[in-house]
Protein backbone atom coordinates (compact mmCIF):
# COMPACT_ATOMS: atom_id res chain seq x y z
CA UNK A 1 0.00 0.00 0.00
CA UNK A 2 1.24 3.53 -0.63
CA UNK A 3 2.47 5.32 2.50
CA UNK A 4 -0.20 7.99 2.14
CA UNK A 5 -3.05 5.46 2.31
CA UNK A 6 -4.19 6.51 5.79
CA UNK A 7 -6.69 8.96 4.33
CA UNK A 8 -8.44 6.21 2.37
CA UNK A 9 -11.32 5.67 4.76
CA UNK A 10 -14.14 4.70 2.39
CA UNK A 11 -14.57 2.80 -0.87
CA UNK A 12 -15.21 6.12 -2.61
CA UNK A 13 -11.76 7.30 -1.49
CA UNK A 14 -10.27 4.23 -3.15
CA UNK A 15 -12.10 5.04 -6.38
CA UNK A 16 -10.76 8.57 -6.42
CA UNK A 17 -7.20 7.42 -5.70
CA UNK A 18 -7.37 4.68 -8.35
CA UNK A 19 -8.55 7.21 -10.92
CA UNK A 20 -5.31 9.10 -10.46
CA UNK A 21 -3.19 5.95 -10.70
CA UNK A 22 -4.68 4.03 -13.64
CA UNK A 23 -4.01 4.75 -17.29
CA UNK A 24 -7.02 6.40 -18.99
CA UNK A 25 -7.88 3.31 -21.09
CA UNK A 26 -8.14 0.80 -18.24
CA UNK A 27 -9.86 3.39 -16.02
CA UNK A 28 -12.47 3.95 -18.76
CA UNK A 29 -13.00 0.20 -19.13
CA UNK A 30 -13.34 -0.37 -15.39
CA UNK A 31 -15.48 2.63 -14.52
CA UNK A 32 -17.74 2.93 -17.55
CA UNK A 33 -21.29 1.84 -18.24
CA UNK A 34 -23.34 1.48 -21.40
CA UNK A 35 -24.95 4.31 -23.37
CA UNK A 36 -25.80 7.39 -21.32
CA UNK A 37 -24.87 5.51 -18.13
CA UNK A 38 -28.37 6.05 -16.70
CA UNK A 39 -28.36 2.61 -15.10
CA UNK A 40 -24.79 3.05 -13.84
CA UNK A 41 -25.75 6.24 -11.98
CA UNK A 42 -29.10 4.88 -10.80
CA UNK A 43 -27.45 1.80 -9.34
CA UNK A 44 -25.64 3.82 -6.71
CA UNK A 45 -28.36 6.40 -6.09
CA UNK A 46 -31.14 3.84 -5.57
CA UNK A 47 -29.54 2.37 -2.45
CA UNK A 48 -29.40 5.79 -0.82
CA UNK A 49 -33.15 6.31 -1.37
CA UNK A 50 -34.00 3.29 0.79
CA UNK A 51 -34.36 4.65 4.30
CA UNK A 52 -33.46 2.59 7.31
CA UNK A 53 -35.75 1.94 10.30
CA UNK A 54 -33.42 1.21 13.22
CA UNK A 55 -34.71 -0.49 16.38
CA UNK A 56 -33.47 0.66 19.76
CA UNK A 57 -32.61 -1.12 22.99
CA UNK A 58 -31.59 -4.33 21.28
CA UNK A 59 -28.50 -6.05 22.68
CA UNK A 60 -25.81 -5.37 20.06
CA UNK A 61 -22.85 -5.92 22.41
CA UNK A 62 -21.55 -8.73 20.22
CA UNK A 63 -22.25 -8.17 16.52
CA UNK A 64 -21.31 -10.95 14.10
CA UNK A 65 -21.16 -10.40 10.34
CA UNK A 66 -20.69 -14.04 9.33
CA UNK A 67 -23.22 -15.87 7.18
CA UNK A 68 -23.38 -18.73 4.67
CA UNK A 69 -23.76 -18.67 0.90
CA UNK A 70 -24.98 -21.93 -0.68
CA UNK A 71 -23.85 -23.57 2.54
CA UNK A 72 -20.34 -22.11 2.48
CA UNK A 73 -19.33 -20.09 5.53
CA UNK A 74 -18.17 -16.55 4.82
CA UNK A 75 -17.07 -13.83 7.24
CA UNK A 76 -19.59 -11.28 5.94
CA UNK A 77 -22.49 -10.97 3.51
CA UNK A 78 -20.14 -9.35 0.99
CA UNK A 79 -18.68 -11.41 -1.86
CA UNK A 80 -16.43 -10.44 -4.76
CA UNK A 81 -18.15 -10.12 -8.15
CA UNK A 82 -16.44 -11.40 -11.29
CA UNK A 83 -14.62 -8.63 -13.14
CA UNK A 84 -12.49 -9.17 -16.22
CA UNK A 85 -8.80 -8.46 -16.76
CA UNK A 86 -7.67 -7.56 -13.24
CA UNK A 87 -3.98 -7.55 -14.23
CA UNK A 88 -4.59 -4.17 -15.86
CA UNK A 89 -5.06 -2.81 -12.32
CA UNK A 90 -2.09 -4.59 -10.74
CA UNK A 91 0.48 -7.09 -12.07
CA UNK A 92 -0.75 -9.76 -9.61
CA UNK A 93 -4.36 -9.31 -10.76
CA UNK A 94 -6.79 -12.03 -9.73
CA UNK A 95 -4.19 -13.88 -7.64
CA UNK A 96 -3.88 -10.83 -5.35
CA UNK A 97 -7.68 -10.58 -5.19
CA UNK A 98 -7.93 -14.26 -4.29
CA UNK A 99 -5.39 -13.93 -1.47
CA UNK A 100 -7.12 -10.85 -0.06
CA UNK A 101 -10.56 -12.48 -0.24
CA UNK A 102 -9.30 -15.65 1.46
CA UNK A 103 -7.57 -13.66 4.19
CA UNK A 104 -10.80 -11.73 4.76
CA UNK A 105 -12.69 -15.01 4.95
CA UNK A 106 -14.97 -14.29 2.05
CA UNK A 107 -15.69 -15.67 -1.41
CA UNK A 108 -14.32 -14.57 -4.76
CA UNK A 109 -15.92 -15.12 -8.16
CA UNK A 110 -13.42 -15.56 -11.00
CA UNK A 111 -14.43 -14.16 -14.41
CA UNK A 112 -14.31 -16.22 -17.61
CA UNK A 113 -12.38 -13.22 -18.93
CA UNK A 114 -9.90 -13.24 -16.05
CA UNK A 115 -6.28 -12.45 -16.73
CA UNK A 116 -5.23 -15.28 -14.38
CA UNK A 117 -6.13 -18.92 -14.86
CA UNK A 118 -8.36 -20.90 -12.48
CA UNK A 119 -5.25 -22.93 -11.52
CA UNK A 120 -3.24 -19.79 -10.67
CA UNK A 121 -6.06 -18.48 -8.50
CA UNK A 122 -6.48 -21.83 -6.75
CA UNK A 123 -2.79 -22.08 -5.92
CA UNK A 124 -2.60 -18.43 -4.78
CA UNK A 125 -5.33 -19.00 -2.18
CA UNK A 126 -5.90 -22.75 -1.78
CA UNK A 127 -8.22 -22.38 1.21
CA UNK A 128 -10.31 -19.51 -0.13
CA UNK A 129 -13.87 -20.29 -1.22
CA UNK A 130 -14.44 -19.46 -4.89
CA UNK A 131 -17.09 -19.55 -7.60
CA UNK A 132 -16.44 -19.56 -11.33
CA UNK A 133 -18.32 -17.16 -13.63
CA UNK A 134 -19.14 -18.69 -16.99
CA UNK A 135 -20.31 -17.42 -20.33
CA UNK A 136 -21.82 -20.33 -22.26
CA UNK A 137 -20.22 -20.44 -25.68
CA UNK A 138 -21.64 -21.31 -29.13
CA UNK A 139 -19.19 -24.19 -29.23
CA UNK A 140 -20.19 -26.02 -26.07
CA UNK A 141 -16.82 -27.78 -25.97
CA UNK A 142 -15.27 -24.44 -24.97
CA UNK A 143 -17.62 -23.72 -22.04
CA UNK A 144 -17.30 -27.38 -21.05
CA UNK A 145 -13.50 -27.01 -20.96
CA UNK A 146 -13.94 -23.96 -18.72
CA UNK A 147 -16.25 -25.87 -16.35
CA UNK A 148 -13.67 -28.69 -16.26
CA UNK A 149 -10.98 -26.17 -15.25
CA UNK A 150 -13.29 -24.84 -12.51
CA UNK A 151 -14.04 -28.33 -11.17
CA UNK A 152 -10.37 -29.39 -11.26
CA UNK A 153 -9.39 -26.28 -9.33
CA UNK A 154 -11.85 -26.52 -6.47
CA UNK A 155 -14.43 -23.89 -7.45
CA UNK A 156 -17.67 -24.52 -5.55
CA UNK A 157 -20.27 -23.20 -8.00
CA UNK A 158 -20.69 -21.94 -11.55
CA UNK A 159 -22.22 -18.50 -12.02
CA UNK A 160 -23.72 -18.35 -15.52
CA UNK A 161 -23.97 -14.75 -16.72
CA UNK A 162 -27.09 -14.33 -18.84
CA UNK A 163 -27.23 -10.58 -19.50
CA UNK A 164 -24.46 -10.43 -22.09
CA UNK A 165 -25.39 -12.26 -25.31
CA UNK A 166 -23.57 -9.29 -26.82
CA UNK A 167 -21.50 -6.63 -25.08
CA UNK A 168 -23.19 -3.33 -24.20
CA UNK A 169 -22.06 -0.21 -26.04
CA UNK A 170 -19.62 1.38 -23.62
CA UNK A 171 -18.77 4.79 -24.95
CA UNK A 172 -16.01 5.59 -22.47
CA UNK A 173 -14.01 2.71 -23.99
CA UNK A 174 -14.56 4.11 -27.48
CA UNK A 175 -13.59 7.65 -26.49
CA UNK A 176 -10.49 6.49 -24.63
CA UNK A 177 -9.55 4.19 -27.52
CA UNK A 178 -9.36 1.35 -25.03
CA UNK A 179 -7.84 -1.96 -26.05
CA UNK A 180 -6.45 -4.75 -23.89
CA UNK A 181 -2.78 -3.85 -23.27
CA UNK A 182 0.00 -6.01 -24.73
CA UNK A 183 0.98 -8.80 -22.39
CA UNK A 184 -2.46 -9.10 -20.72
CA UNK A 185 -4.14 -12.35 -21.60
CA UNK A 186 -7.27 -14.31 -20.69
CA UNK A 187 -5.58 -17.70 -20.16
CA UNK A 188 -8.70 -19.81 -19.54
CA UNK A 189 -10.10 -18.65 -22.88
CA UNK A 190 -6.91 -19.06 -24.87
CA UNK A 191 -6.42 -22.52 -23.34
CA UNK A 192 -10.02 -23.47 -24.13
CA UNK A 193 -9.57 -22.14 -27.68
CA UNK A 194 -6.40 -24.18 -27.95
CA UNK A 195 -4.17 -21.21 -28.74
CA UNK A 196 -1.61 -18.98 -27.13
CA UNK A 197 -1.43 -15.19 -26.99
CA UNK A 198 -3.96 -12.47 -26.32
CA UNK A 199 -7.65 -12.31 -27.07
CA UNK A 200 -9.61 -9.07 -27.58
CA UNK A 201 -12.87 -8.34 -25.77
CA UNK A 202 -14.71 -8.29 -29.13
CA UNK A 203 -13.16 -11.60 -30.19
CA UNK A 204 -14.23 -13.06 -26.90
CA UNK A 205 -17.88 -12.00 -27.22
CA UNK A 206 -18.00 -13.50 -30.72
CA UNK A 207 -17.69 -16.95 -29.11
CA UNK A 208 -20.50 -16.36 -26.55
CA UNK A 209 -23.78 -18.05 -27.54
CA UNK A 210 -26.47 -15.37 -28.11
CA UNK A 211 -29.09 -18.06 -28.86
CA UNK A 212 -29.05 -19.47 -25.32
CA UNK A 213 -32.52 -20.09 -23.82
CA UNK A 214 -33.93 -21.30 -20.50
CA UNK A 215 -34.10 -24.86 -21.80
CA UNK A 216 -30.37 -24.75 -22.65
CA UNK A 217 -29.74 -23.42 -19.16
CA UNK A 218 -31.77 -26.26 -17.66
CA UNK A 219 -29.79 -28.85 -19.61
CA UNK A 220 -26.55 -27.18 -18.57
CA UNK A 221 -27.54 -27.12 -14.88
CA UNK A 222 -28.61 -30.77 -15.01
CA UNK A 223 -25.24 -31.83 -16.42
CA UNK A 224 -23.01 -29.45 -14.44
CA UNK A 225 -21.25 -31.16 -11.53
CA UNK A 226 -21.44 -27.91 -9.51
CA UNK A 227 -24.45 -25.85 -8.38
CA UNK A 228 -25.40 -23.24 -10.99
CA UNK A 229 -26.28 -19.63 -10.19
CA UNK A 230 -27.85 -17.35 -12.79
CA UNK A 231 -26.37 -13.85 -12.87
CA UNK A 232 -28.18 -10.97 -14.53
CA UNK A 233 -31.80 -11.57 -13.50
CA UNK A 234 -33.74 -8.28 -13.37
CA UNK A 235 -37.42 -9.32 -13.19
CA UNK A 236 -39.66 -11.50 -11.05
CA UNK A 237 -40.62 -13.43 -14.20
CA UNK A 238 -37.03 -14.46 -14.84
CA UNK A 239 -36.52 -15.19 -11.15
CA UNK A 240 -39.36 -17.71 -11.29
CA UNK A 241 -37.96 -19.20 -14.52
CA UNK A 242 -34.53 -19.60 -12.89
CA UNK A 243 -36.16 -21.64 -10.10
CA UNK A 244 -38.07 -23.79 -12.60
CA UNK A 245 -34.98 -24.44 -14.72
CA UNK A 246 -32.69 -25.76 -12.04
CA UNK A 247 -30.76 -22.77 -10.71
CA UNK A 248 -29.34 -23.00 -7.19
CA UNK A 249 -29.17 -19.23 -6.82
CA UNK A 250 -29.74 -15.92 -8.57
CA UNK A 251 -27.63 -12.80 -8.78
CA UNK A 252 -29.84 -9.76 -9.38
CA UNK A 253 -27.49 -7.69 -11.51
CA UNK A 254 -27.37 -5.16 -14.32
CA UNK A 255 -23.71 -6.06 -14.92
CA UNK A 256 -22.77 -2.82 -13.19
CA UNK A 257 -24.75 -0.78 -15.75
CA UNK A 258 -22.53 -2.07 -18.56
CA UNK A 259 -25.14 -3.93 -20.61
CA UNK A 260 -28.67 -2.57 -21.27
CA UNK A 261 -28.69 1.09 -20.31
CA UNK A 262 -32.11 2.12 -18.99
CA UNK A 263 -32.80 -0.93 -16.86
CA UNK A 264 -33.79 -0.22 -13.27
CA UNK A 265 -31.33 -0.07 -10.44
CA UNK A 266 -30.89 -3.50 -8.88
CA UNK A 267 -31.89 -2.03 -5.48
CA UNK A 268 -35.30 -1.30 -7.01
CA UNK A 269 -35.94 -4.77 -8.50
CA UNK A 270 -34.42 -6.92 -5.76
CA UNK A 271 -37.64 -7.29 -3.80
CA UNK A 272 -39.67 -8.22 -6.90
CA UNK A 273 -37.24 -11.07 -7.59
CA UNK A 274 -37.14 -12.16 -3.95
CA UNK A 275 -40.94 -12.35 -3.87
CA UNK A 276 -41.12 -14.32 -7.12
CA UNK A 277 -38.68 -16.99 -5.95
CA UNK A 278 -40.43 -17.18 -2.57
CA UNK A 279 -37.53 -18.70 -0.66
CA UNK A 280 -36.91 -21.51 -3.16
CA UNK A 281 -33.31 -20.42 -3.76
CA UNK A 282 -30.81 -17.86 -2.48
CA UNK A 283 -30.89 -14.41 -4.05
CA UNK A 284 -27.80 -12.21 -4.27
CA UNK A 285 -27.50 -8.69 -5.61
CA UNK A 286 -24.79 -6.44 -7.01
CA UNK A 287 -24.51 -2.96 -8.48
CA UNK A 288 -23.44 0.22 -6.74
CA UNK A 289 -22.93 -1.28 -3.28
CA UNK A 290 -20.34 0.99 -1.68
CA UNK A 291 -21.34 1.21 1.99
CA UNK A 292 -22.15 -1.01 4.92
CA UNK A 293 -25.58 0.65 5.00
CA UNK A 294 -26.12 -0.54 1.40
CA UNK A 295 -25.29 -4.08 2.53
CA UNK A 296 -27.94 -4.01 5.28
CA UNK A 297 -30.48 -2.46 2.88
CA UNK A 298 -29.93 -5.41 0.52
CA UNK A 299 -30.32 -7.88 3.39
CA UNK A 300 -33.56 -6.20 4.48
CA UNK A 301 -34.96 -6.57 0.96
CA UNK A 302 -34.20 -10.29 1.03
CA UNK A 303 -30.71 -10.72 -0.42
CA UNK A 304 -28.54 -13.40 1.14
CA UNK A 305 -25.41 -11.36 0.38
CA UNK A 306 -24.15 -8.65 -1.96
CA UNK A 307 -21.31 -8.74 -4.47
CA UNK A 308 -18.95 -5.85 -5.19
CA UNK A 309 -17.27 -5.33 -8.56
CA UNK A 310 -15.42 -2.07 -9.16
CA UNK A 311 -14.29 -1.39 -5.55
CA UNK A 312 -12.07 -4.49 -5.80
CA UNK A 313 -10.46 -3.07 -8.93
CA UNK A 314 -9.85 0.24 -7.14
CA UNK A 315 -8.24 -1.64 -4.24
CA UNK A 316 -6.01 -3.55 -6.64
CA UNK A 317 -4.95 -0.38 -8.42
CA UNK A 318 -4.10 1.39 -5.16
CA UNK A 319 -2.23 -1.39 -3.41
CA UNK A 320 -2.56 -4.87 -4.96
CA UNK A 321 -3.45 -7.54 -2.40
CA UNK A 322 -3.19 -5.04 0.48
CA UNK A 323 -5.47 -2.61 -1.32
CA UNK A 324 -8.17 -5.25 -1.83
CA UNK A 325 -7.73 -6.33 1.80
CA UNK A 326 -8.32 -2.73 2.91
CA UNK A 327 -11.44 -2.38 0.76
CA UNK A 328 -12.87 -5.59 2.22
CA UNK A 329 -11.98 -4.61 5.78
CA UNK A 330 -13.61 -1.19 5.38
CA UNK A 331 -16.81 -2.76 4.11
CA UNK A 332 -16.75 -5.35 6.91
CA UNK A 333 -16.34 -2.65 9.55
CA UNK A 334 -19.08 -0.53 8.00
CA UNK A 335 -21.41 -3.54 7.79
CA UNK A 336 -20.82 -4.41 11.45
CA UNK A 337 -21.43 -0.80 12.41
CA UNK A 338 -24.60 -0.58 10.29
CA UNK A 339 -25.94 -3.82 11.80
CA UNK A 340 -25.31 -2.60 15.34
CA UNK A 341 -26.90 0.80 14.81
CA UNK A 342 -29.87 -0.83 13.08
CA UNK A 343 -30.40 -3.02 16.16
CA UNK A 344 -29.26 -6.30 14.61
CA UNK A 345 -26.64 -8.60 16.15
CA UNK A 346 -26.12 -10.53 12.90
CA UNK A 347 -27.15 -10.52 9.22
CA UNK A 348 -29.83 -13.09 10.10
CA UNK A 349 -31.57 -10.54 12.34
CA UNK A 350 -32.21 -8.05 9.52
CA UNK A 351 -35.91 -7.96 8.56
CA UNK A 352 -37.99 -6.27 5.88
CA UNK A 353 -39.25 -3.89 8.57
CA UNK A 354 -35.72 -2.48 8.94
CA UNK A 355 -36.25 -0.47 5.72
CA UNK A 356 -39.12 1.69 4.54
C1 LIG B 1 -14.56 -3.84 -15.41
C2 LIG B 1 -15.69 -4.79 -15.20
C3 LIG B 1 -15.62 -6.06 -15.76
C4 LIG B 1 -16.64 -6.97 -15.55
N1 LIG B 1 -16.51 -8.23 -16.06
C5 LIG B 1 -17.49 -9.13 -15.83
C6 LIG B 1 -17.36 -10.46 -16.30
O1 LIG B 1 -16.36 -10.83 -16.91
N2 LIG B 1 -18.38 -11.32 -16.07
C7 LIG B 1 -19.52 -10.93 -15.38
O2 LIG B 1 -20.42 -11.74 -15.19
N3 LIG B 1 -19.64 -9.69 -14.90
C8 LIG B 1 -18.66 -8.79 -15.11
N4 LIG B 1 -18.80 -7.53 -14.61
C9 LIG B 1 -19.98 -7.17 -13.78
C10 LIG B 1 -19.72 -7.45 -12.30
O3 LIG B 1 -19.67 -8.83 -12.04
C11 LIG B 1 -20.81 -6.86 -11.40
O4 LIG B 1 -22.07 -7.29 -11.86
C12 LIG B 1 -20.79 -5.33 -11.31
O5 LIG B 1 -19.49 -4.83 -11.43
C13 LIG B 1 -21.42 -4.89 -10.00
O6 LIG B 1 -21.49 -3.51 -9.92
P1 LIG B 1 -20.39 -2.60 -9.13
O7 LIG B 1 -19.18 -2.55 -9.99
O8 LIG B 1 -21.11 -1.29 -9.04
O9 LIG B 1 -20.15 -3.22 -7.78
C14 LIG B 1 -17.78 -6.59 -14.80
C15 LIG B 1 -17.84 -5.32 -14.23
C16 LIG B 1 -16.81 -4.43 -14.42
C17 LIG B 1 -16.90 -3.07 -13.78
From TrEMBL:
Q: Name one Pfam family in it.
A: FMN_dh
Q: Where is the FMN hydroxy acid dehydrogenase domain?
A: 3-356
Q: Name one GO molecular function term.
A: FMN binding
Q: Name what cofactor the protein needs.
A: FMN
InterPro entries linked = Aldolase_TIM, Alpha-hydoxy_acid_DH_FMN, FMN-dep_DH, FMN_HAD
The cellular component terms of Gene Ontology attached to this UniProt record, alphabetical and capped at eight, are: cytoplasm
User: What keywords tag this UniProt record?
Assistant: Flavoprotein, FMN, Oxidoreductase
Family, according to the entry, reads as follows: Belongs to the FMN-dependent alpha-hydroxy acid dehydrogenase family.
Q: What is this protein called?
A: Unannotated protein
Question: What organism is listed for this UniProt entry?
Answer: freshwater metagenome
Amino acid sequence: MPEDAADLVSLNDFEERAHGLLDPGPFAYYSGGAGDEQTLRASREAWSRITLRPRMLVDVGDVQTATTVLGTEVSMPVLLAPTALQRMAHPDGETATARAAAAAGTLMTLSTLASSSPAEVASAAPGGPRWYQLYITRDRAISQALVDQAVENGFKAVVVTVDAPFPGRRERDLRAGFSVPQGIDAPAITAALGRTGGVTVEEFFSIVDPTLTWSDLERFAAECPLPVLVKGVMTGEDGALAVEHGAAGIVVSSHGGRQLDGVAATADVLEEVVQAVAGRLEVYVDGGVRRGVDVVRALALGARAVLIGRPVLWGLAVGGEQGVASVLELLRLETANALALLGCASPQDVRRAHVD
